[in-house]
Amino acid sequence: MKNTFIFIICCLGIWHLTADINNVYNIHNEKKIVEFNLYSGPVSIFGNKLIIHEQNSIKEYDIDPLGNLEMVSNLEKRSSVFGYLNEDRYYDLINFRGANLIQIGVYDLSQTPMEKITDIQIDTVYTLSTRLIFTDQHIIVTGQSDGGLILINKRSFGIDGYINNFYSFFPTELHNDLLVQVDVDPSIGSIARFYNLLYNPNNNNYIITYLSTISLGPEIGGIHDIIIEDSIVLLYGEGGATIIDASDVVNPVIQHQLILEEEYIYSALFQEEYLFLSTSNYNLLVYEIDSWGNFTLIFIDETGDNGSFRTLALQMPYLYRNAGSSFLTYDVQQNLNVVKQEERKLAPTFWSENNFYYHLCETIDPPVNRTNKYSFYSVFAEELFASLEVQDLYLHGFEISDEYLYAISADVNMIMYFQVYEISNQQLFLLNEISFDYEETILLRFYRNENRFYLETRPNADYYSRNVYIYDLLGTAFVYIDSFPGTINNQLGYQSANYLLNYNNNRLLIRDLTNYTHVLLERFVTNYPSLYAGDIFIHDENVLLLDANFLFNESFIYYFEVENASVSLVEHNTTQLNSFNKIIAKHNLDSSIIEFYTVSNNTLNYIGEFENNTYQENKVYFFPERNKMVTRSNASIKVYDFEYTVTKTKDQTYPPTQTQLFPNYPNPFNSTTTIKFYLPQSGKIKLSVYNVKGQLVKILLAAYLGAGEYTLRWNGTDDQNREVSSGIYFYRLQIGRDETVQRMILLQ
Q: Is 678 inside any structural domain?
């Protein structure tokens, strides 16, 4: 007999689907605890509007004459990193990883607040160079793995055609009829090719004419982006920036070139004799260029903690910069003084078996003293848990246990620390610390097993090398014990106190930590080399290993039997994995559905799914003793009430080929009614509620289900979670082209 269920969150209504043994999850009372930002995205200016493209939202601001910003709208969206401004429209490019699908969100900036026009979905292969360029007639998708361009009509938003004879795997940009494409020539390094793009109205397509090629030199690496203003072409990325005068496109000339050997340029702007750069070291660099092409560094700002695509925007006299945890406004005419610095919320988290913590950082008096105030909270409490004020010290990962807080931090002198704080009266007091010189060793993460600590480090000069150092905390003193090579991957350490998952040289190694040892129990070769190999947690008396290989967007689930130290592969799939409290959460990369499984007898058992229409990177944590569920995305932390009951239904016998939709019960009903149906075979179904006018009230369920009997409840609300009025309603079950309808009566 199957033991499966599905639970789906639809807007604010919660619906439960059960089969045979009815495992009922009642999830309700969504509460958003905190919003934050983990990504510094593109910044665009349209008239007096400034658009900030965050990973999970698009923020619209009005700009006043003094450069101040007032938020007009904040539109949530699916996770994406590329945003484009063209004429009076804004375009959001979304990649559905794991599926041959991209989506382009189209927004109207002529309206205040801006309005979404449509979503365009295209079946195509996404690459790291997939970008958008624009003509008067078309949105053009570049960067296809097989070369070529896709033409999307700006009015109908349909595909008008393709240009198959133009290779655009590397960044490509268009200005008027000048098309610039970068490529790599193995003999001379990066090059830029220039073309003329001419629209042919007779066939609604384009003629591309090759004009010239220019070498950027061997010191310039991969090009990240291209900016074209009139006849000036700016190319930047690995190794530096190049400014090309393309007034004669047949004979373009390198006008200026800046070589940066140890920095990667994420964003750049060129304004008369000034070059503005946002770099991989999270710096803002401003260079003055003289008439001989010499660069003089005149300004540097080290504020920031993230780099990405087109994060600078200039509207004289103000320069706007999206720097991750800060959004800064500089006065270009006043020595680039910071006239406003908006601190953004970042929320590193830590969870234990019965609690979930996060901390927020507030910078006091920036950028003079750089005093950081860290406030720690539990999502289940309304008050502050602990706080810490430190000058020029930045906290990264942390863990809370009883009366102590453990943290990784770094100061402005490039020294990293592993620190232990005592918690007393909501204050943190430093007890001891271990320091690492960042120039030599970078402290990445730690794992705690009671009073023993495993610190994972890597040499600054060798990205692919890892070492784990073991320390005991005796009283307030750290005592060095031992070390071994590789990574540590115990994000669920409290559940796996007797085992450590260690990764080294393409092998996952299971270490037994019983009695404070780190004896190697088992090793096995993973399918791909990866520094992201995953999680470990106890399931019953065995250990389940999750090797989540994000580099290849694939996951490998292994099952380790303690008694005979044997490892077997349970599943290999194109998913991301999150495992919390004996439940495996699998995120299919081509959808927003997160599926949940338990494990028994080396087998995954499907138990349900959770739908989040906005965020792809959602993680789900269950706290059964508190009757709570926590979700963590790149933009927020939410808490839900979570209740669990189990009932058993009577076995039924149905004709093997007949779909059944049964009368609801009770009927009439006052607040909640139960709907049951039977599927003789698996298939995609939709169960919907309609009023007597034939208008859709709510979609209760739209999913792919296996054969069996299913039960769900409707609580008399519409798709906005509003109570509907008394009256006659119809519920319709659709599977393929077949449908069945039943009637029900609601009496409020």
A: yes
